[in-house]
Amino acid sequence: MYQPTEKFSITLPADMAHLIHEKVGKGFYASDSELIREAMRFWIEQEKSRKVKLEALRQDIYDGLESGESSVWNPDEIKREARKQRAALNSLSSEN
User: Fold this and answer.
1) Are residues 27 and 36 in contact, defined by beta-carbon separation less than 8 angstroms?
2) Which of 21, 35, 36, 58 could, after both became Cys, cross-link 29 (CB 3.0–4.6 A)?
3) How far apart are CA 38 and CA 31, in angstroms?
4) What is the dihedral of CA 22, 23, 29, 33, to 10 degrees?
5) E-strand spans in the chain?
6) What letter would DSSP give residue 30?
């Protein structure tokens, strides 16, 4: 599938330019442009993924805000209750 192209000039730090030349020189890519196009495709996919994750986070925040009034909770009380429930389950399983 043909896509219109545009010649583009960029300036990179020497270490990045070296990596590009190294990969092309070793035959991983046919040209600098091919490597840059692949890097851009990867970046575009990463951006899409970030956008999806951000939207999910926004939805979670919205759902939390809409879930009603919050209440104060005590982590020690939650642990005590969980241990009590676990002990009750353990005693039931040891009776069988």
Assistant:
1) no
2) 35
3) 11
4) -60
5) none
6) S
- Both tokens of 18, joined, read 């070296």
Counting every residue written for the chain, the total comes to 96
Amino acid at 29: Y
Other CB atoms closer than 10 Å to residue 73's CB: what's the count?
A: 8
pLDDT, tens digit only, all 96 positions of the chain: 788 989 989 999 999 999 999 999 999 999 999 999 999 999 999 999 999 999 999 999 999 999 988 888 899 999 999 999 999 998 887 776
In this prediction, residue 96 carries a pLDDT of: 62
CA pair distance 65, 70, nearest whole angstrom: 9
